[in-house]
Design goal:
By secondary structure, the protein is α/β, with parallel strands linked by helices. It has two domains: about 180 residues, 3-Layer(aba) Sandwich (Rossmann fold), CATH 3.40.50; about 120 residues, Phosphofructokinase domain (Rossmann fold), CATH 3.40.50. It contains eleven helices and eleven strands. The strands form two sheets. A seven-stranded mixed β-sheet has the order 3-2-1-4-5-10-11, sandwiched between helices. Helix 6 runs parallel beside helix 11. It starts with 5 loop residues before the first strand and ends with a helix. The structure holds 6-O-phosphono-beta-D-fructofuranose.
Length: about 325
């Protein structure tokens, strides 16, 4: 295989805190291996448009603590087309780039896999999404910061919930997965957690709220994952109202606050380790793999695997929620 001399890095899909730390690690490790590095703006959109910027050590100075992504991000429709991907390839060839590092989620890896196959181009991926829904890594970059942000907000809501003796339905992100909801639910001492992976029994939820009231539990926090089958927090509150108006209920949708902010130490650490490992992988002739961390060890998971396999939540964690709020 031809020796890699020049690489490019991009961030794609929803941003996640720690993406900057990952960019920094990729750039500085690549430079330490005497590689030339380009940053590509706005993910696959910038790859198609040819928005490439040369990067040096200074370009990634003072960014490890910043949320968002200095390279910007986008969800590209054009990259779903053969023509879009051909244009992207032409741009890489024109700039004499030998390999790509992509930082993003499931959609990013799907695009990377097709592109790598079509053009026989070396790509390594880093898992960057707050959702933690990628098979092949215990944690994705951004998850830890997102759950900490959510817990901090929920602690504040709990104060007012307790004072007013209210039930709060708090919606968290996670797309169609319940990882954020579960972790946040346990960490904030929630009375219930509603996740897409388990069918929601609204009657049972109502009975539970009644039971809490009978036990003189005068306020409750119910965490709702945005992708739940029974709907988001507003729908679930509405469903509870149909049983009667015995509760004072409120809804808070935490929304994009979960995507921003300075990354936690863990996310910076994870991003730094994975970024370095991505360059090691490319220099070691690994292709079309996501770099993950399982049981504190670096692992390389083929794109095919991380796309095909579904990462499951640990349903025993729901039992823990129940046990701990009795
Ligand atoms: O994948 C990250 C995520 O924040 C999901 O949790 C959420 O469903 C989605 O992105 C929101 O996307 P957008 O910012 O495009 O509305």
């Amino acid at each position: 295989m031809a020796k890699i001399k020049k690489i490019a890095v991009l961030t794609s899909g929803g941003d996640a805190p720690g993406m900057n730390a990952a960019i920094r690690a990729v750039v500085r490790k690549a430079l330490s291996e005497n590689l030339k590095v380009y940053g590509i703006l706005r993910g696959y959109e910038g790859l198609i448009k040819g928005d490439f910027i040369p990067m040096n050590s200074k370009s990634v100075g003072n960014i490890i603590q910043l949320g968002g992504t200095i390279l910007k991000t986008a969800r590209s429709e054009k990259f779903r087309t053969v023509e879009g991907r051909q244009q992207a390839y032409n741009n890489l060839i024109e700039k004499e780039i030998d390999a790509l590092v992509v930082i993003g989620g499931d959609g990013t890896f799907k695009g990377a896999r097709i592109f790598a196959e079509e053009h026989n181009f070396p790509i390594v991926g880093l898992p960057g999404t707050i959702d933690n829904d990628l098979f092949g890594t215990d944690m994705t970059i951004g998850f830890d910061t997102a759950i900490n942000t959510a817990v901090e907000a929920i602690d504040k809501i709990r104060d007012t919930a307790a004072s007013h003796e209210r039930i709060f339905f708090i919606e968290v992100m996670g797309r169609d997965a319940g990882f954020i909801a579960l972790r946040v639910g346990i960490a904030s001492g929630a009375e219930a957690v509603i996740v897409p992976e388990v069918p929601t029994d609204l009657e049972q939820l109502h009975n539970r709220l009644v039971e809490y009231m009978q036990r003189k539990k005068t306020s409750s926090i119910i965490i709702v994952a945005e992708g739940d089958d029974a709907g988001g927090a507003f729908e679930i509150k509405k469903a509870m109202e149909k049983y009667g108006d015995e509760f004072d209920m409120k809804v808070t949708v935490l929304g994009h606050i979960q995507r921003g902010g300075s990354p936690t130490a863990y996310d910076r650490y994870l991003a730094s380790r994975l970024g370095v490992a991505a360059i090691d992988a490319l220099l070691d002739d690994q292709r079309s793999v996501m770099v993950g961390m399982i049981n504190r060890q670096i692992v390389y998971v083929p794109f095919n695997q991380t796309i095909k396999h579904h990462k499951s939540i640990d349903q025993t964690l729901l039992d823990i929620v129940d046990i701990l709020n009795t």
